[in-house]
Amino acid sequence: MSYEKLFNLKSNPFRHTPAISSTEIIWAGFPLIKEKFHNRIKRAIKVPNSSLILNWGEYGSGKTHAARYFGKKTVLAEISEEAGGKIPYFIFVTLPKGKSPIEDFYTTIVDKLDISLLRASFNSQKEDLINYIDLIGDNGFIKNVAKAFFNDEIEENLFRRYLYGSANATDNRSLSERGIQRVLNPDTDYSKLLSVIFSCLTFNGSVYSSVILWIDEFEDIAILTKVNGDKTNSFLRELLDNTPNNLLIFLNLTQSALFNIEDLGEYISEALKSRIKDRINFELPKEPEILTYVSELLKAYKVEDINDTNIYSPFNETLLQQILKDLGNVSIRNINEALGTLVDLAESDSKSPIDLEYYKTNLTDVIGWKN
Amino acid sequence: MQYIIDACTLINLLHIDEDEFLLKKLQKLEFVLCKVVYDEINKNVFKKLQKTIPYPIEMHKDIEIKLNYLRERIYSDESYKDLDEALSKLLNYSKKNGEYQSMMLSFYLNTFNKTRVLFFTDDSPAKKEFAPYLEYHKIGYIEDSVDLLITLYRHNDGFTTGDLKRFLSLLYHEYACEISALEKVLQNFEIPRNEIRNRELIIMLGSLKQSINKLELGKVASLYSQVTENKKKYSPLFDMLIQFSDFFRSEISSDFLAKINQNIEFADSKPFYKF
Fold it and tell me: Would you call B202 and A369 a contact, using CB atoms and an 8 Å cutoff?
């Protein structure tokens, strides 16, 4: 029998790790964490200073989900309205682990920059933007590349080839006329160019109020070689130094086999550490938090808004308390897995509501991995 | 002293090498390898890290050129294989893999050339299995890539402390990338809906997650063996883990990773003697 008929649910709310489709990405429970992110982004919209925030937690604690939720245009638009500014430009990347992390980092960010959209967005204030580029920084070559970035007379594909370092002789000839006579150097130019572009995006705050760069899996800095770890630190420090305003960087850090928060000092340079403005901890959730989370998630998945006194339907509070007691201190993903399995089992057995007895009969299937 | 080097150690060296720096230093060592070891290198050199950081195609040619240096070091006189029957009994070992062939060659060279043998391998089980025999019969001993890098550092003027730290760090990176990728894949693995009643699969996934999180690589390897022996029962896990088969084949231990890191520290805090 379908979830709808059996449980009055659109689908199994607990089986998404993490949700990818924008409509599926909702925030349930954990109001304090939500508020912290909300306030950080609001502050980035209102206050110009750039900042770096660490998000710390175990696997499955919700860091990637937070990035996806706060990267949603609707969420950002709501916060912007509240802050009285324009929407931030949001970029989500995963820390590159290859042999050339800076090149990979730069390429991933460039991949995510929608050049035609940005050119169109700034088209009406092109002259002001060019004047602004002339005011920031002291590197004439980088300024010319940044001007070309926003210049719709330069064909986008040609310019992308240049940014990726794969321009041909004809491309180079045409760019040379625009003051771009050499290729970009990964060690010296990549961070400077991105900084100028980020600054341009937030130029006079009329299109974007700020740039949010959200870096996932930053714990993998521990598995980079010493040289590449140092390069990554320098790259981020230069990005922040060269973009003093309107840049908000979030770093997602996960406690893993090869990385512990106590070791953070080994992998993040003093220069970068001194730029960290806040740390958002994704602690293992407590029972009241989980109960709120479950009830809010179930509510969001309800097909019909029936006036049900049991906010945990198809479960009940006693059952949930028992499950949480059996699970002990675990991440929200572990809780989702257990409840997701229980819902799936009940669906295949056409069992609704799901009670304590049914849970006990299927205990090993639901939390067998604990033993 | 006669040096014999195993496939995993040579593959590591080929991967972490930059501008043939290590290979040139290695050429100065009196080392040999068995034909089967060379074949294993040829077969597996590009497979390593395929899942995590695959080597760009343009680098394949460089590695193929480097393989030529190694081809010259294949021990061509195959008389050592005459020891097969006696040694398989003595070592109580039935596989005919590169490690075993290297053992035969070690016993042969020690017996007929009257030389001590230093066998380099990063294969932890092979090390555990064969080291006592090499010691007991006074053939020689076993070391790994870390020891080989320190040896090369000590015997080459142009090999600086910075180089040593860099290559050790690259070696750590090679293994750490795979461990990190494996951990992420396991942590993000969701039991397929049609398998929610497969209790053994659920329990196996839980055990794998716990073991990798504690960096108990030996236990992870043993669980992987159970999965491969029961492909049907653990089908979804098997399909995912098979991508890491080369990592599991290398049977790297947590101690080896700790040893790499410790020696990076030693390079500064307790420098290795250099004349």
Answer: yes
